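FYI - complex with flavin-adenine dinucleotide, inputs then prediction.
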Amino acid sequence: MPLFGSSDTDTRPDSKLDSKLPTGPIEQRWDTRRFDLKLVNPTNKRKYKVIIVGSGLAGGAAAASLGELGYNVECFAFQDSPRRAHSIAAQGGINAAKNYRNDGDSIFRLFYDTVKGGDFRARESNVYRLAQVSVEIIDQCVAQGVPFAREYGGLLDTRSFGGAQVSRTFYARGQTGQQLLLGAYQALERQIRAGTVKMFSRTEMLDVIMVDGRARGIVVRDLITGEVRSHMADVVVLGTGGYGNVFYLSTNAMGSNATAIWRAHKRGALFANPCYTQIHPTCIPVTGSHQSKLTLMSESLRNDGRVWVPKKAGDNRPPDQIPEADRDYFLERKYPSFGNLVPRDVASRNAKEVCDQERGVGPGGRGVYLDFADAIARLGADVIRSRYGNLFDMYERITDEDPYKVPMRIYPAVHYTMGGLWVDYNLMSTIPGLFVIGEANFSDHGANRLGASALMQGLADGYFVLPYTIGDFLASAGPDPMTPDVPEAKQTEAEVHDRVKRLLSIRGDRTVDGVHRELGHTMWDYCGMARNDAGLRKALDRIPELRKEFWSSVNVPGENESLNQSLERAGRVADFLELAELMCIDALHRTESCGGHFREESQTPEGEAQRDDENFSYVGAWEYSGDLSAPTLHKEHLEFEYVHPTQRSYK
Amino acid sequence: MNLTLKVWRQKSANDKGAMVAYEARDISPDMSFLEMLDVVNEELTLKGEDPIAFDSDCREGICGMCGCVINGQAHGPDHGATVCQLHMRKFKDGDTITIEPWRARAFPVVRDLVVNRSALDQIVQAGGFVSVSTGSAPEANSAPVGQAVAETALDAAACIGCGACVAACPNASAMLFMSAKVMHLGVLPQGQPERYDRVSEMVETHDRLGFGSCTNIGECSAVCPAEIPMDVISFLNRDLIRSRAGRGMKRA
Ligand SMILES: Cc1cc2nc3c(=O)[nH]c(=O)nc-3n(C[C@H](O)[C@H](O)[C@H](O)COP(=O)(O)OP(=O)(O)OC[C@H]3O[C@@H](n4cnc5c(N)ncnc54)[C@H](O)[C@@H]3O)c2cc1C
Ligand code: FES
């Protein structure tokens, strides 16, 4: 029996989900679409108002590009400067099918790897387009002055990155995200100066304004004055990032949140694959209950570090006293061809497994070693320092241990959310006039994202896809200026006001962080690296209770009319408490394992994720029904014409 | 460990503000400085008091959101690190720690330890970019950049825009911040066409926004979490002279 919505074997197209996929040979689909899209007359562009929420790689690139085209853009971010969006923290690099190395790469191979890496749960047409525009992204960024690593001859350097056998990852030391974002930020500042973009920093979007079934604006709160007001536009774009902070502890920045997409969901945008979460294998383990976030150690470390634990359970000798014979290099043992470079989901699950066998290391036993001793012996400490110096310093600063001498300790942590608002091929959600880009949408990574492909997707969406597709929507709609006095805006503003007032009036005995921490534990235990029926049902019992406790006993001090960080956090946590339930519902309904979604009931004899293509080869898109515990499922069936779904094998 | 904190509290930009003392109890040396403040804030909240406002986001030393003056030092005692990377093991049980916001004319206080740094964005707006619209870029490898040049550019581009340099400078100058951008773009071939206009426009804007002038004291570089060297300032000064000479010639 299906849990929700239509029967599992029903493959008729869902009327809610018109994915607008192009047809024809895959290499020509994007070209054909670009030609078919309507154009906005250049002199008319300034008559269209575009709202972009988010100034990360996706939002920043989009705002700059649309400003350059001449649209009248307003851009919003909750940080004090667009340069501080969470994209800044990306370390490892960005993929592109340049094939500078002559090592067998091509657009088709990047496409192939990404579809396979996503465990056959992404759309072929989208992924192919992503691989195509990856090439232009590098050109654009270099022209902006992004200082990518170079070879001696002055040409661009690349490295190989988790899960890929070719060298296609462009990087700038361990600061790739920072340098790419500064490129987009500078382009954005240029447009702000030119007057095409108006920037609203420290301004948080709290709702979408719907007029006649179309997104026509947003309600925001000025984080300094508390003023709640509406901004109207011809089209609204969300580039608001991922929702990994549902888990409380994650590698995301403290402020990363789901509010924008969750509010849009409640206004009618379908939420696709909410349970697809990426757990990154190489993060610094948790040290205590005070922990506020987790720190990623770039995946590139697995190029030279070897992962191991003691063979015997409970062996707590210091690492240098454990002889080779007593060590288990479990990734190399189980996956001889990929070894330490298996994709993230596989590496993470294996780390959990050895820790569950009580072979984990460090305080609490939730950790595995990432050992550089062999690499240092082979290449010398200087080479290792030149490759990873800043990461080693960061590790030492946090743990007070020197990784040149003692193996690092790492453990998986929540890192990225593949799920997000459902969008069609043109990046529009199920709400007309609401586009979603970057990590906030669900589009290109299926059930597992490969390393160095989120930066690629964010920039692809912002620089090269949205600027075309948004024009088509606007040209069809025609310019239609609207003021914030319309009743729909007033009504939405009033609702936002009420919610703020309600949060401030509870004055109970629990802190916002306290509730958030508890939600995080529940999610990590039951909807984390491994999920099962019983556990998910437990979470589904607990989350609505916790939500009730929040609304009756949380204490949000202070007032609305000034900078109030507790109030900001409270609003975000209130939304996490709702989204968490949807994630568990989605995880429960998908009884197969795929990519980052591992259902213990569905594994191969070797313990790998076992897909069920017959019943689950679809995107699960959820519609808000008015009852958080009973959303309606819609399915977009996935077709594979070019890459035939197989059991992924990294042996 | 147990500590005494003396923290700058100021309700709004117009409030006078004052130092207020708090006790921080049972602090673990493994906590980061901001996690220690989180603990203090949880207690304040439960007591019904307003928590201390401070900025942070990435808590990894890269976004530049955090920043305060700890015992008189911007970002505190750990060299080459932001306050979110500072750990409590750098302090001793019983220590008294003073915590204040960045103080500079161009950075008005918003609340407690939070200041308004939008003046830094305005400096970038004045010219801290390469004018290349999306889609117009040539093939990435068409202009080789020597490895050493790329490294120099990246050293300068590593600036996180936190504003510690301004807070540490007795003249409250943003010279290090601005020069880092001028040098990042100025050494790369992509940045050449606008090189001299960029520097003069950025400097004009910097001065107009109320930042002080640079007298080469070097406090900025000493506290910089990204360890931007003083060389960037000499680079800017050389370019500024050339820029002015060029403009003079145009006028003559
Ligand atoms: C530590 C770390 C390292 C990573 N390393 C890599 C890597 O090496 N390679 C790779 O490809 N990917 C990497 N990723 C993933 C990648 O960085 C992100 O997926 C990507 O940067 C997301 O970009 P974005 O533009 O979608 O969102 P973000 O950069 O998160 O931007 C979100 C924007 O939305 C704004 N915003 C959000 N909500 C609101 C609201 N309600 N109102 C107003 N504004 C709002 C924010 O202010 C911000 O400007 C990494 C991620 C992490 C956490
Ligand atoms: S919080 Fe990002 S640098 Fe400190």
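Chain B has a mean pLDDT of 96. Residues 117-132+143-251 of chain B form a domain with the Fumarate Reductase Iron-sulfur Protein; Chain B, domain 2 fold (CATH 1.10.1060.10).
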